[in-house]
Amino acid sequence: MYTLYWCPDTGAFAPQAVLEETGALYELHPVDTKAGEHRTPEYLAVNPRGQVPALRLPDGTVISESAAMVLHIADAHPAADLLPPPGDPTRAQAYRWLFFCVANIYEADLRYYYADRYTDDTAGREGVRGAAARQMRESFAIVERALDPGPYLSGAR
Question: What is the DSSP letter of 104?
Protein backbone atom coordinates (compact mmCIF):
# COMPACT_ATOMS: atom_id res chain seq x y z
CA MET A 1 0.00 0.00 0.00
CA TYR A 2 1.10 3.55 -0.74
CA THR A 3 0.92 6.41 1.73
CA LEU A 4 0.53 9.86 0.20
CA TYR A 5 1.53 12.67 2.54
CA TRP A 6 -1.02 15.19 1.45
CA CYS A 7 -2.28 18.72 1.93
CA PRO A 8 -4.87 20.67 -0.09
CA ASP A 9 -3.52 23.10 -2.68
CA THR A 10 -0.21 21.27 -3.10
CA GLY A 11 1.40 19.13 -5.76
CA ALA A 12 -0.28 16.13 -4.12
CA PHE A 13 -3.19 16.45 -6.54
CA ALA A 14 -1.41 14.79 -9.48
CA PRO A 15 -0.10 11.68 -7.69
CA GLN A 16 -3.45 11.25 -5.94
CA ALA A 17 -5.25 11.40 -9.30
CA VAL A 18 -2.86 8.79 -10.73
CA LEU A 19 -3.31 6.55 -7.69
CA GLU A 20 -7.07 6.77 -8.21
CA GLU A 21 -6.75 6.02 -11.93
CA THR A 22 -4.62 2.95 -11.31
CA GLY A 23 -6.86 1.59 -8.57
CA ALA A 24 -3.80 1.20 -6.36
CA LEU A 25 -4.36 0.85 -2.64
CA TYR A 26 -3.29 3.98 -0.81
CA GLU A 27 -3.99 6.03 2.24
CA LEU A 28 -3.81 9.78 2.64
CA HIS A 29 -1.73 11.09 5.50
CA PRO A 30 -2.80 14.71 5.98
CA VAL A 31 -0.04 17.21 6.68
CA ASP A 32 -1.31 20.55 7.99
CA THR A 33 1.20 23.00 6.55
CA LYS A 34 -0.67 25.97 8.05
CA ALA A 35 0.00 24.48 11.49
CA GLY A 36 3.63 23.83 10.54
CA GLU A 37 3.37 20.04 10.56
CA HIS A 38 5.70 19.88 7.53
CA ARG A 39 8.46 21.32 9.74
CA THR A 40 8.14 18.81 12.57
CA PRO A 41 10.92 16.28 13.18
CA GLU A 42 8.46 13.51 12.30
CA TYR A 43 7.69 14.91 8.85
CA LEU A 44 11.27 16.00 8.18
CA ALA A 45 12.22 12.33 8.70
CA VAL A 46 9.88 11.58 5.77
CA ASN A 47 10.93 14.50 3.57
CA PRO A 48 13.97 16.46 4.77
CA ARG A 49 12.99 19.45 2.58
CA GLY A 50 9.69 19.70 4.42
CA GLN A 51 7.76 19.76 1.16
CA VAL A 52 4.36 18.23 0.59
CA PRO A 53 3.68 15.82 -1.03
CA ALA A 54 5.80 12.80 -0.26
CA LEU A 55 4.94 9.25 -1.21
CA ARG A 56 5.78 6.17 0.83
CA LEU A 57 6.04 3.25 -1.56
CA PRO A 58 4.81 -0.26 -0.71
CA ASP A 59 8.43 -1.30 0.04
CA GLY A 60 8.68 1.46 2.69
CA THR A 61 10.94 3.82 0.77
CA VAL A 62 9.85 7.43 0.26
CA ILE A 63 10.06 9.60 -2.82
CA SER A 64 9.37 13.28 -3.27
CA GLU A 65 8.66 15.34 -6.39
CA SER A 66 5.18 15.00 -7.86
CA ALA A 67 6.35 14.20 -11.39
CA ALA A 68 8.53 11.36 -10.09
CA MET A 69 5.55 10.03 -8.15
CA VAL A 70 3.30 10.16 -11.22
CA LEU A 71 5.83 8.32 -13.38
CA HIS A 72 6.57 5.70 -10.74
CA ILE A 73 2.91 4.95 -10.02
CA ALA A 74 2.06 4.72 -13.74
CA ASP A 75 5.04 2.41 -14.36
CA ALA A 76 4.23 0.25 -11.32
CA HIS A 77 0.68 -0.26 -12.62
CA PRO A 78 1.00 -0.83 -16.37
CA ALA A 79 -2.45 -2.44 -16.62
CA ALA A 80 -3.96 1.02 -16.00
CA ASP A 81 -2.49 2.04 -19.37
CA LEU A 82 -1.70 5.59 -18.26
CA LEU A 83 1.58 5.77 -20.19
CA PRO A 84 2.55 4.37 -23.56
CA PRO A 85 4.95 1.43 -23.25
CA PRO A 86 8.72 2.02 -22.96
CA GLY A 87 10.26 2.60 -26.37
CA ASP A 88 7.04 3.98 -27.87
CA PRO A 89 7.68 7.47 -29.30
CA THR A 90 4.48 8.75 -27.73
CA ARG A 91 5.94 7.95 -24.31
CA ALA A 92 8.60 10.57 -24.95
CA GLN A 93 5.83 13.07 -25.67
CA ALA A 94 4.07 12.11 -22.44
CA TYR A 95 7.32 12.82 -20.58
CA ARG A 96 7.70 16.09 -22.44
CA TRP A 97 4.27 17.37 -21.41
CA LEU A 98 4.58 16.18 -17.82
CA PHE A 99 7.86 18.01 -17.37
CA PHE A 100 6.64 21.02 -19.34
CA CYS A 101 3.80 21.39 -16.85
CA VAL A 102 6.12 20.95 -13.86
CA ALA A 103 8.82 23.33 -15.10
CA ASN A 104 6.56 26.01 -16.52
CA ILE A 105 3.00 25.97 -15.21
CA TYR A 106 3.49 24.56 -11.71
CA GLU A 107 6.63 26.61 -11.13
CA ALA A 108 4.90 29.81 -12.30
CA ASP A 109 1.94 28.99 -10.07
CA LEU A 110 4.30 28.77 -7.09
CA ARG A 111 5.87 32.13 -7.93
CA TYR A 112 2.45 33.72 -8.35
CA TYR A 113 0.97 32.49 -5.07
CA TYR A 114 4.17 32.44 -3.01
CA ALA A 115 6.10 35.43 -4.34
CA ASP A 116 7.59 35.94 -0.87
CA ARG A 117 9.63 32.76 -1.40
CA TYR A 118 11.36 34.35 -4.39
CA THR A 119 12.28 37.78 -3.06
CA ASP A 120 12.77 39.43 0.30
CA ASP A 121 11.83 42.77 -1.28
CA THR A 122 8.18 43.39 -0.47
CA ALA A 123 7.84 45.82 -3.38
CA GLY A 124 9.43 43.27 -5.75
CA ARG A 125 6.77 40.65 -5.05
CA GLU A 126 4.35 42.24 -7.51
CA GLY A 127 7.01 41.96 -10.21
CA VAL A 128 7.48 38.29 -9.38
CA ARG A 129 3.71 37.76 -9.54
CA GLY A 130 3.41 39.65 -12.83
CA ALA A 131 6.16 37.60 -14.47
CA ALA A 132 4.60 34.40 -13.17
CA ALA A 133 1.16 35.33 -14.51
CA ARG A 134 2.68 36.07 -17.93
CA GLN A 135 4.52 32.72 -17.92
CA MET A 136 1.31 30.87 -17.01
CA ARG A 137 -0.62 32.56 -19.84
CA GLU A 138 2.14 31.76 -22.34
CA SER A 139 2.45 28.17 -21.13
CA PHE A 140 -1.29 27.53 -21.22
CA ALA A 141 -1.38 28.96 -24.76
CA ILE A 142 1.31 26.45 -25.81
CA VAL A 143 -0.70 23.60 -24.29
CA GLU A 144 -3.89 24.82 -25.96
CA ARG A 145 -2.21 24.92 -29.39
CA ALA A 146 -0.78 21.44 -28.80
CA LEU A 147 -4.26 20.05 -28.13
CA ASP A 148 -5.07 20.34 -31.83
CA PRO A 149 -6.25 17.82 -33.05
CA GLY A 150 -6.75 16.42 -29.52
CA PRO A 151 -8.57 15.50 -27.52
CA TYR A 152 -5.33 14.85 -25.59
CA LEU A 153 -1.80 16.14 -25.95
CA SER A 154 -0.86 12.77 -27.46
CA GLY A 155 -3.79 12.84 -29.83
CA ALA A 156 -6.59 10.31 -29.43
CA ARG A 157 -5.05 8.64 -26.39
Answer: I
